[in-house]
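Full entry
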Amino acid sequence: MELTGAQSLIKSLESQGVEVVFGLPGGAILPVYDPIIDSSIRHILVRHEQGAGHAAEGYAQVTGRPGVAMVTSGPGATNIVTPLANAFMDSTPLVVVTGQVATQSIGTDAFQEVDITGVTAGVTKHNWLVTNARDIPNVVAEAFHVATTGRPGPVLVDFPKDVANSLTTWEEPGPVDLPGYRPPAAADPAAIAAAAELVLAAERPVLYVGGGVLKADASAALSRLVELTGIPVVTTLMARGAFPDGHRLCFGMPGMHGNFTAVTAMQRADLLVALGSRFDDRVTGKVSSFAPLAKVVHVDIDRAEIGKVRRPDVAVVADCRLAIEALLAALRERAAARPGALDPTRIAPWIATLDEWRERFPLAYDRAPAPDARGGPPPLKPQYVIEQLRAATPEDTVLVSGVGQHQMWAAQHWRFDQPRSWVNSGGLGTMGFAVPAAIGAKVGRPDRMVWAVDGDGCFQMTAQELVTASAERIPVKIAILNNAYLGMVRQWQHMFYEERYSEVYLSPDLPDYVLWAEAMGCVGLRVTSHEEVLPAIEKANEIDDRPVVIDFRTDSMEQVYPMVPSGLSNDEIVLHPSQQGLAR
């Protein structure tokens, strides 16, 4: 069957099971937009290419399937570089198709020409420049294979306009065979055996769970490992929900703004079993003083992560789910041969210590704030907003966040009991992520309620995508924690720059978020007191035919605690002022 390269591309996307594409047309990609009219693929027209990429990320994070975005050449392509970098850091499977000038014009500085394969070489797993329409089915198959296998990540297919217009034939692609690309799968039995022996010998073990557990769909296997061994769990920012917060052995999030128990458990552990985590600097603090007494078992599908930050005693290069299942089998085998090998009393004193820390050092904030300086009502506490939001929404609600103080409060004060219920930008820390990512998450899981917690600074970067949500009838809900500042930057200036607040004030009233929301076809609400929080949330929850934006006017002086200052040891964690005098 003869068809154009553009038709071949759309047919190839359909053959990969693509149901939705987020995109924005332009000159170079224009030929591809014609066959979309006749395709089963739903196209969602965004208002900025960055929104297309982040929406595709949100879709991917909640579904586990690759998100797909399509943009034109030049500025369209460069506008999606930030989502590509974000997806690369967070191991999110993404397939981005960019238009390109005709092949004979490449290298001539033609209108809207950018060497996007060169630009994105460092922030994609791989990219392709298609020069022959016959290659389209195989290139697309390879792109999806690379994006979704091994350590997931973003890929890019650059598609010249003349290739899109040329005539070709379409054939079902054969098995993907990429020389040099051989992602590991099964774990080395010798490494698993060594890991099992360390687990059986440990008296203060911790399971250090990262986002790789979610990427490998390993949550169920992880739960079985915890039930068998009784080992306590900490879940990183990217792993929230991989193990239920409600479980007695879940001790929450470690890291720069993790809770005292999770941070200190890692510092005092004699064994860290790192599952799909990469010893990020936000978790380790000062590397030389991180977990100084611990032996390390590092399980990761990416060999490049092994030894990059902390040299492990046992390295397991494998898919997390397969590695955990192999470790379970090895532990059961040893328990059968050596009765009492998994006796939980061995680590009972350790669990008791963690329970004591959890009781003495909970997450804290001023729950009875004083009236403001002018005698008005107490300022609205952002942590209270998060707690009320969680209490008033269904258990399977998907929470999306931007980046900054509100992200940390959301990660701390929400209760995550299900995998793929938390969507955020971790490694790159991309402001403006929340609104488009929430749209993508809702498209991926239309059966779930989707709330985004955003800051006023983040919201202003990509709020135009609420026009997309309104036009496409995607009923996301946005809670703006409006403290009139670039809050996290202000916190650092408060703590480390002698309160010299340089270029961080945003104003609570400019813009008027309620009017802005209404102008974009959303319902806009404003909350200024604690008494108004729950009624506003309940009203938002009842609206399901359009997006809702709530402007929560929060305390501009509030800080995120605990905090490990950058470059210091995790042992120097700064607690909330109400806890700083307590003996540890």
